[in-house]
Amino acid sequence: MHLIKRIFHDSFLKQTLGVFLIKIISSILGFTTTVLLVKKLGGEESSSYFFLIALVSVCTAITTFGSPDAILKFSAINRGVGKLVRLVIRKTCMFAFSASILAAAVIYFVNNIELLSSEKLFVLTVFIILPLASVNLVLSAALQGIGRVVYAMVASGVLQSACVLSAIFLFELDYLGVVLALAFGYFLSSIFSIYFLKIDLNNKDKKHNLSGFKSTCKSMFVSQCVIQFNNHSAILLLGLLWVGTDISVMAIAMKLTTLISFIIIAVNRVLAPQIASKYEKADIADLQLIITKSARFMWLFCLPAILLIIVFSKELLILIDQAYAEYSKVLIMLAIGQVVNVLTGNVGLLLSMTGHEKVQKNILIVSLLVSLAMGFMLVPEYGPFGASIMMTTNIALVNLSSYFYVLTKLKLNTMKLL
Fold first, then answer.
1. pTM for this entry
2. How many CB atoms are located within 10 Å of the residue 72 CB?
3. What does the alpha-carbon distance between residue 36 and residue 57 come to, in Å, rounded to a whole number?
4. Which pLDDT value is given to residue 3?
5. What DSSP character marks residue 245?
6. What pLDDT, on the 0 to 100 scale, is given for residue 92?
7. Tell me, what's the pLDDT at 244?
8. Nearest C-alpha neighbor of 147 from the set 197, 205, 113
9. DSSP string, 240-309
10. 362, 401 in Cβ contact below 8 A?
11. How confident is residue 246, by pLDDT bands cut at 50, 70 and 90?
């Protein structure tokens, strides 16, 4: 009873619990959708869909030019000046949409030279999804920045998964049908975000030099591109380098480990605007306090789940498909990467929200070079297992480097529990 009262009187814990519950729903929807897609479309056709999602995710980092984190930070600091925030969001969305059309055209020409996917409608689906995904990414970041964290999570994943899952149950879908369902989900999410941004942002205005915002975008651009590539490098490199054609097992294994990392993502959603605001006010003691609370939360819920996945990796994969049993070591390797992720905590978020984007960028560039070298060596020979080694090594390199920088330069300890 005392614990329940404490949660409802602690704004951080209350908001984190709400985000946590939404992320559980989102993760279950995402995982269920992935499994059903593999069963409905088959390994090869579903692999084309997963490759599309990976490619679009990396491209959105380019087409938004680092603006999602910059919008989040700008909205958190200037949320009292609603007219200004709306202006910046509108201009950023227009830029992202235009850049997406251009990027899709580049993919069209590249695909004519070097076939990226065996799916005939692949390029058309890039033109459909990329602009919608880019605009939705900007809008959901703005929602998160003004404190609508739960709504931002609904807009950035729940609605899309719900639309695809509903379409799978209601219709006999092929590759194009699934993509159109996803596109409808992105459209709904954008309308949802615009509605709540319009409600929450007032009409106050002030003159503001946007050079700082543009500078933040530039600093975060490279970081966001590398982060997105690292997140999806396994799928992309398997699609491009591996002789096998069924990469669905990698998508399944990554979704299973995402069921662990959803706690980290949920906590980070709540922390991001608070870190930007408290660091701006130089309130380091209070900042350390909420980081410590988040560390306790993540260790308590994530580490037991990781242990279960490692111990029962083969059994979990067999539940999905008997053919996946031989890939249990892929799941174990990805789970080890999540151990490092949980132990080091919110280090990446701290760097990006406290003006240390350049340091983050340098760490990520080094990690990218290491990942690419490992990927080209391991993926052609060892397939999904080689890709999982590459991803876990990358997580360790990025997180440990970031942790020691945050500890020594910012004097913040993400491993502090007491």
1. 0.76
2. 26
3. 21
4. 46
5. S
6. 92
7. 62
8. 197
9. HH-S-S--HHHHHHHHHHHHHHHHHHHHHHHHHHHHHHHHHTT-HHHHHHHHHHHHHHHHHHHHHHHHHH
10. no
11. low
